[in-house]
Design a protein that fits this description.
The complex is a heterodimer of chains A (about 110) and B (about 110). Chain A is an all-beta fold. Chain A has strands at about 5, 10-15, 20, 25, 35-40, 45-50, 60, 65-70, 75-80, 90-95, 100-105, 105-110. Helix content of chain B is about 0%, strand content about 55%. Chain B has strands at about 5, 10-15, 20-25, 30-35, 45-50, 55, 65-70, 75-80, 85-95, 105, 110. Chain B is globular and about 35 Å long. The chains are: A mainly beta (about 110), B mainly beta (about 110). The interface of A and B includes residues 32 and 97 of A.
């Protein structure tokens, strides 16, 4: 069975700083997707970034980038130049053919000025 | 357009009431999902519809009854709910369901009295 682990329940960072959120997963599959979703307080869950397992190149989306280590089953999210609007709960998720997404327990990120 | 809409935004109901939640997407997606989310927790999968057929039912109590009238619409009928059913109910859709990116609606915040 697939599992997703986020070991940091809460993190805090100052504006303009860089922060890295950790995620590890376990699977025996070779083709799958990994995602980071962001859910601001009382707001909609939105996709931050997505990584296909067959791609060696790490995905990037503006200030957001991932460090995907397939052999280590690690998928961390780096947020550069943190902004107040980045304050949210971040969920790492695993997707595999024929199933719905499997979510980690989430990391609450607080960005302060 | 990556929009999933949900109505109503808020719902208060008594334990003897019958109500329905509605979800709509016009992205041509063929998989739709219902999740239940408690505060500070990840979404919990309830149901998956794939090509308008129920493909996954995560042992949800029968007081929750899903319906997919067509490929754009998803309903969740509620009857005789319990106070512990109070939560945020999220709808999501994905192109075909095979572990792909899911797009979430804003949710319906349900309070059962």
């Amino acid at each position: 069975a697939q599992t997703v682990t986020q070991s940091q329940p809460e993190m805090s960072v100052q504006e303009a700083e860089t922060v890295t959120l950790s995620c590890t997963y376990d699977t025996s599959e070779s083709n799958y997707y990994l995602f980071w979703y962001k859910q601001p307080p009382s707001r909609q869950m939105i996709l931050v970034i997505r990584q296909e397992a067959y791609k060696q190149q790490n995905a990037t989306e503006n200030r957001f980038s991932v460090n995907f280590q397939k052999a280590a089953k690690s998928f961390s999210l780096k947020i550069s130049d943190s902004q107040l609007g980045d304050t949210a709960m971040y969920f790492c998720a695993f997707g595999w053919a024929g199933t719905a997404l499997i979510f980690g327990k989430g990391t609450t990120l607080s960005v302060s000025s | 357009d990556t929009e999933v809409t949900q109505t109503p935004k808020h719902l208060v109901m008594g334990m003897t009431n019958k109500k329905s939640l509605k979800c709509e997407q016009h992205m041509g997606h063929r998989a739709m999902y219902w999740y239940k989310q408690k505060a500070k927790k990840p979404p919990e999968l309830m149901f998956v519809y794939s090509y308008e057929k129920l493909s996954i039912n995560e042992s949800v109590p029968s007081r929750f009854s899903p319906e997919c009238p067509n490929s754009s619409l998803l309903n969740l009928h509620l009857h005789a709910l319990q106070p512990e059913d109070s939560a945020l109910y999220l709808c999501a859709s994905s192109p075909s369901g095979a572990g792909e990116t899911q797009y979430f609606g804003p949710g319906t915040r349900l309070l059962v009295l």
